[in-house]
Amino acid sequence: MKLKYIIPSFMAVIAAVFTSCSENNDPTLLDSIQVSTSYLGIGQDGGKVSTILTANSDWAFASQKWIMGKDTITAATPQWLTVNQVSGPAGKTELTFSADKADESRECELHINCGGEMQRIMVVQQAEETDPLVLTVSEAVALIKSGQQGERAVHVKGIVCRIQEISTQYGNATYFLSDDGTFGDGNWLEVYRGYWINGAKFTQGDEFAVGDELLISGVLIDYNGTPETNQGTCEVISIKKSLIAIGGVEMLNTEDGEGLTVFPMEGGQAKITVNTKGDGFHISIPDDAKSWLHIADFGPNYVTLQADANTGGDRSVTVGLSTVASGTTYSCQQSFTQKGAIVECSIADFLAAPVGDTQYRITGIITSVAKAEYGNVYLRDFSGEVYVYGIGAKGEFESLGLKEGDIVTLVGKRAAYKDSPQMGGGQYEKHFSVKPVTVAEFNAAPDAPDVYYMLTGSITKVVNATYGNLNLADETGETYIYGCYPGWGATGDFRKGFLETAGIEEGDVLTVIGSKTTYNGTIEMNGGLYFSHEKAK
Known about the structure:
Helix content: under 10%
């Protein structure tokens, strides 16, 4: 343990006092207000100190701006210091200042206003400096899981194993640390929107890289099962650059436009150039990718990887590269993706699929819009309903003119949030705009198999319960629904018995979607897709 040096501003004050005494200069005294001592010191363990204030009229502490963490507040005194009285009448008053135990030295200059004159009081609490306890990533994660991480910032040292974003727009970064530089199951700590050294904002976007060793300080939290540092509380204390880095990636035998780190579906090669100051380098391919990714060539400063043809869905891999210098292992990583076939399926099959990179194509009716700005919707077909988190980029949903009731086709990955299945980032392919109309408007519309209408009316008669044939009427007229089906994509036996299964009967108010046709002179909706219904009162 070592004593921390007295903080500079306090030293300057003491020096000024001794200089004044040595030169036999009397201190300047205010006419309206004086204190018995204007320099007060509190020990590290906390306690109380006092001074006698003498004023010839009413007095009060003046509010000032104090820095509390990353926030600025306006108050008469800082949060760590308590004063027994902050205003009073003329005469003598004993002011008592108290503070709790301090882990770090701190000081404040207080201002007391009396008749327009300002008396200053300096309060200093000096603490001993100890070397901070530095946790490994595994120790930090274990502390979070125990629920005993507390609310104070702690120091954690780890190797950057994945970078989600270094934002120069917002000046913060989200990345992951692990003890060995790998991104595995449960071995990492997420730094969520942390800052650079001394809390500075990121301005370049390349201040650190995967493989660099960082010492950070931040408040640890458990966010819905994710071990991370609380938003905005983390800053980098120091960085130790890795002795190995990716010099470049060249995709060989690949058509233009595939992407810098994207293997085509038919397979291909990628040459990784490695810059290292260690004793050679080693490459590690994850076990779950060894069946399709192989080393084709290896040299002193490069490695060429061969990806086999992909007959499944999209897949990804992150290979590790490491070197050893003076007994210390340094590492970095390189990620690749490979295009795969798009699996066309029902929503039920999509929900049953595992979370992964496989691309699925689903079509259904938008039953509700959760957030139009981000394109968050619920999509339903004959087999089920799924939450889609984001159709396209921000604002694209509204520009596409999509709305509740429309039939849309999306491509995306099976994802999950808090164990709830969803499609993450649905890529828009096409849609049919559905127009709500009255029965009279529907009957007067031209026959068109690819133009869809939404009808709402009361069921006046169930003609065939097995196939859902019925008459639907509103205040403008009546029309024939040739088959009420459970939703988009229903075929064969999936169409049979839906009315009974859904509890739909004569008199109920039914909303269906379909196109207008005419059969043997009878106007009808051929295959009404179920949207909603209300029981008859």
